Amino acid sequence: MLEKKMSITDLQAKKGVEKITAITAYDALMAEIFDAEVDVILVGDSLKMSFGGENETLGASMEEMLYHTKAVCRGVKHSFVLADMPFGSYATQKLALKNALRFYKNTAADAIKLEVDIQKLPIVRALCEEGIAVVAHIGLKPQFARFDGGFKVKGKSEKEAQELLECALAMQEAGVCSVLIEGVKSQVAEKITKALSVPTIGIGAGNACDGQILVWSDAFGFFSAFKPKFVRTYCDGRAMLKEAIRAYAKDVKSLQFPNENESY
Ligand code: KIV
């Protein structure tokens, strides 16, 4: 359990010392439950898929991400809050600066995350120079799934592995505080982790990364549309809630709820 608010310095100091733990949250209710139990809480645009019923993340808007980030920040006292910049919100340097500043001025997020390849280097550099803490998301980038023709594991070829390593190093040089590696061959993620001085957080990238993140509805068995190979389910949340909702409906139908103590 965290006893004080996790800062960037605290997070970076974990590299090579202890693993970083991270999970998504999209509202104050869940954020408050997860707070202090994990180092990082990500307000991910995965909310479009896990809660919005969409099959991609591209529809997330700045307004939605700001709304969810504000809600999460209200529930968090200790964990480091990371917020996703939605698709299109950092298409140009000007737009990226404008929208990143909106996150900083309107929410208490500790850092923002951008899905990047080497072409985004000038944008990432400009944000870092402005004093905005940036996490670079590399590898499988869900915001590029339509362009890529699906959610494809990266780093399978020598060329792709080399490009990922060079991108991670360039992002570090530009000033990012951490690199999130998604859907990348374990050996490639390991090589990147060893080459960087900033911590890496992995999802579907093996256990050599400096930390791990999961989408909460996957981790706790609420999302049933599909289960990626990298997900470990820690409880059957869906079955638990189904049982509870059925019990409630049964009590109402059978006049067992509310009883006298539950009435005015
Ligand atoms: O949006 C999200 O939840 C993410 C994680 C998959 C890392 O980016």
TrEMBL record:
Cellular localization per UniProt: Cytoplasm
Cofactor entry: Mg(2+)
UniProt entry tagged with the keyword DNA damage: no
Reactions catalysed: (6R)-5,10-methylene-5,6,7,8-tetrahydrofolate + 3-methyl-2-oxobutanoate + H2O = 2-dehydropantoate + (6S)-5,6,7,8-tetrahydrofolate
The keyword Repressor appears for this protein: no
SUPFAM superfamilies, alphabetized: Phosphoenolpyruvate/pyruvate domain
Gene Ontology CC terms: cytoplasm
Main location: cytoplasm
Binding site for 3-methyl-2-oxobutanoate: 45-46, 84, 113
GO MF annotation terms: 3-methyl-2-oxobutanoate hydroxymethyltransferase activity; magnesium ion binding; methyltransferase activity
UniProt-listed Pfam families: Pantoate_transf (PF02548)
Binding site for Mg(2+): 45, 84, 115
Cofactor details (free text): Binds 1 Mg(2+) ion per subunit.
Alphabetical keyword list: Cytoplasm, Magnesium, Metal-binding, Pantothenate biosynthesis, Transferase
CDD domains, per the entry: KPHMT-like (cd06557)
Protein EC: 2.1.2.11
Catalytic residues as annotated in Swiss-Prot or TrEMBL: 182
Associated pathway: Cofactor biosynthesis; (R)-pantothenate biosynthesis; (R)-pantoate from 3-methyl-2-oxobutanoate: step 1/2
GO biological process: methylation; pantothenate biosynthetic process
Similarity annotation: Belongs to the PanB family.
Binding partners and assembly: Homodecamer; pentamer of dimers.
Function: Catalyzes the reversible reaction in which hydroxymethyl group from 5,10-methylenetetrahydrofolate is transferred onto alpha-ketoisovalerate to form ketopantoate.
Name listed for the protein in its UniProt record: 3-methyl-2-oxobutanoate hydroxymethyltransferase
Species for this entry: Helicobacter magdeburgensis
